[in-house]
Amino acid sequence: MNRNYLIVALRNFWKHKVLSLINIVGLAIGISASLVIYLIVSHDFSYDKFHPDRDLLYRVVSKIEFPDLTIHNSGVPAPTAAAARQEIPGLATVTIFRTNGEMKVSIPAADNQNVGVYRKEKDIIYADPQYFETFQYKWLAGSRAAALANPHSVVLAESKAKKYFPGIKPADIIGRQVIYDDTIKTMVNGIVEDFKETTHFTFGEFISLSTLEQSALADFYSWKDWNSISSNTQMFVKLDPGMQPAKIEKQLAELRNRHRERRDKDKKDDTQHFLQSLNQIHFNTDYDTFEQRQAHLPTLYGLLAVASFLLLLGCINFINLATAHASTRSKEIGIRKTLGGSKANIRIQFLSETFVLTLLATIVSIFITPWLLMVFGDFIPPAVTTASVYQWHVWLFLLALILAVSLLSGYYPAYILSKMQPMAVLNQRANAHSSGSGKIWLRKILTTSQFVIAQFLLIATLVVSKQVRYSLSKDLGYKKDAIVYFSVPRNFYSDKKDDRRLVLQQKLKALPGIEKLSLSAEPPASGSTSTTTMEFANGDKKMETMVEVKFADTSYFNLYGMKLVAGNNLQQSDTTKEYVINETYAKLLGFKNPADAVGKFIERDFLVPITGVISDFHTKSTHEAIKPLAYSSATKRSYTFHLALPTGTRNAANWSNTLAKVEREFKSIYPEEEFSYSFYDDSLAKMYKAEQDATSLLQWASGLCLLISALGMLGLVIFITNSRTKEIGVRKVLGASVSHIVMLLSKDFLSLVLLAFLIALPLSWIVMNNWLQDFAYRTNLSWWLFAISGLGMMVIAVVTLSIRTIKAATANPVESLKVE
């Protein structure tokens, strides 16, 4: 940049410090928000981009359709993988693995080292040998071909190897023993390097799949059943180059039909398998990603829109102030042109000033960014931190942003200023030129656009907040306050009967601080779902549907305040002997009166009677409609304790003492386990985390938009009052009141705010009405939401205008007229 351009730019900034500060703050807010959003978006789009031949990698997922219900499941029947290897051409590799929950890991002593015990270890899977052919890891010890070939083998990621065997070289860990849940004994056959890139494949321990297949888990997981599908059982394939996914999907359908049980072949197959590209796993929320965070594409697009809005508002401020400010620099331009300055030189001068101002704003934004990352900590992926800024592509993005904003903000003012005619300027006619109708209308259009964006975001914030409050306060069909639940360990690998939880149940019943107690499965609403097909014979016609199944004891309904509308409560049983169904299922079966369903039978592998009907309640968030549900009593599936604590402020103060006693009793039965519990209302609130995050985002976005818009309006008011100082003085001398002058200076701006509201009103109604359609149970778009938004915006405008207009209107006219 020419040194003279820089000196002139800095002098001009210093001369007009307030207007320059307004421009810098507005642009800095927009740039810092854009930087944070870029970090989020670039992180989400970087998942699993490092895999060789990633465009050929697919996950096989399942879609199960019923007349009343469609289920998406990221798993497949376990036998599918082995059959696909044998019967489907065009597949380079096929791998299947089974994910686990938390497991206890024990490291036996060797070479006089202490025994290591690690509780609740995560990221452990059962994998077949083809896993390491499909996904390429760097091997630090062991052989890829032989590592998982035999039962009771395990491969450790480097991070887990260092944790379990600190200070030991990878080659020396080979052959060491690792025991899982005190039952599964394995030997380390390999060490691989952790993926350093962004990935969903964060597994750290790979137990040979044949270990599962030769244990009691095979039956527990229905490993040979073509009708059993679990999202924990994941199948990935790598296609041969040139092979079309649609062809493989067709062959998967034929494969499934060949292997279905004979009794099912006469029925329409409700299950279809599809290939999901590895590139889409992070964004398709119909299918999970090993219980890890997924991105929501509409949210990402919304973030990009917010960044664009904030940047646009900052640029609009600059254009408005620069064009309004043009008349004060008219003589400078006239002299430059008289002395031989070209239009190009003048444009370069003003574009250079814009570039310097944008650069200063960018420097400020870099200091603001850590604060924004902290503010949006709950919304931003944990991997996005302040350190994320120090990457080459981020600096490249900032450079591109500086150039783009400089050009967008500076080109039009530079173009207008360079067109000024020197004769007109030096004849003192520049003011008339600068006030030409074209520029006035441009400023009005830009100012109106600012407030349309701000009004839209403010209305969106109010609507989303109202929906979240509605969801959290809605009668969900059960009690949710003062209820605590926790789970006890369950050994999936042992055939021995474990009655320790029953002993704990008796101990907890004796505690005075617990009003009600239930030993059942999960709470009424939870993230986990267990569904199965059920048939009901209504005369000669059979009805088959997918039904969610839950397990409870005799105290469960009373504890959660769930209403039994017909029939009787469940009876205690170790096995499924009866069902209590919800009203939705009763209506689906054709019973308008719930009592008519009692005594009828549902067909499973055997006939199960319906003994009761409970009132409908929400098992998921209000996004989803209430679906068919059946409760059964099965003690063998009950490993979760539900405690109802006494309500009231005085009683709530004693909750911590009661829970401390519960922990002591828990530790007396399970001394090696950690005790953790959850309040049920907190768990329900987590179901709406996405909406709460969206509310937080919109609050900040609308607040920042309002701030930038108000700053822009303040800058224009400052400039206009300065340019009309003598006019104001003359009006006061002629008897104009302060209120008249304030209204004179404010009416144009207030009319623009009102126009912006009228434009934003139908736009926001259409968008937010469409957004609410995603909720099966939703709030109304009340008129007062829009009224509050419009009134609030008008108040902000009046306060902003008053900061300057009242000062100008109350100024002594002698001071403004004495130079005449």
From TrEMBL:
GO cellular component, one term: plasma membrane
Subcellular localization(s) per the UniProt record: Cell membrane
Presence of the UniProt keyword Transport in the record: no
Residue spans crossing the bilayer: 21-41, 300-322, 355-374, 394-414, 445-464, 697-720, 741-761, 781-803
Domain MacB-like periplasmic core: 20-254, 451-628
A Pfam family that the UniProt record links to this protein: MacB_PCD
Keyword Heme: no
GO MF term (any one): ATP binding
Keywords from the UniProt entry: Cell membrane, Membrane, Transmembrane, Transmembrane helix
Residue span, ABC3 transporter permease C-terminal domain: 306-422, 702-813
Protein's membrane topology: Multi-pass membrane protein
Superkingdom of source: Bacteria
Protein name, per record: Cell division protein FtsX
Organism expressing this protein natively: Flavihumibacter solisilvae
Classification of source organism: Bacteria, Pseudomonadati, Bacteroidota, Chitinophagia, Chitinophagales
